[in-house]
Amino acid sequence: MTRSLALSLGSFAMGLVVLRGIWHGEMAGDVASEAIGTLIVFMGIGGLAGTIADQLIRDGVEDLYRKRVKWFQEGVAETTAEETENQTK
Q1: For range 12-24, the mean pLDDT
Q2: Do residues 28 and 65 touch, judged by C-beta distance below 8 A?
Q3: How far apart are CA 16 and CA 23, in angstroms?
Q4: Which of 3, 6, 53, 58 could form a disulfide with 43 if both were Cys (CB 3.0 to 4.6 A apart)?
């Protein structure tokens, strides 16, 4: 997720700088250097945002998994206790 978000955000920003340069009739060399700088900056921002999002998603999935396992273990324990109680009668 980190790399894909960084690449997407960086490429989008670079494309916007190139379009702005075309729109204003700027020189290709100036636009290219600005676009590359923008690409690097926004790839960093996208990488940071992707890392944060990845961590949040992993924590959420892990929390749901642990709750589900606990629920299952409690169900098994209840079923075992009921079977033991029925056998003793």
Answers
A1: 93
A2: no
A3: 10
A4: 6
Residue of 56, 57, 18 lying closest to 36 (CA atoms): 18
Q: What is the pLDDT of residues 29-78, one digit of tens each?
A: 889 999 999 999 999 999 999 999 999 999 999 999 999 999 999 999 88
* CA 25/CA 14 separation, integer angstroms: 16
Q: Helix H segments across 2-88?
A: 2-24, 28-88
Rounded distance, CA 2 to CA 88, Å?
A: 57
Does pTM surpass 0.70? no
Comparing CA positions, the residue from 27, 29, 54, 79 lying closest to residue 87 is: 79
- For tokens 């945002």, name the residue: 49
In this structure, the chain runs to a length of 89
Average pLDDT over residues 72-86: 85
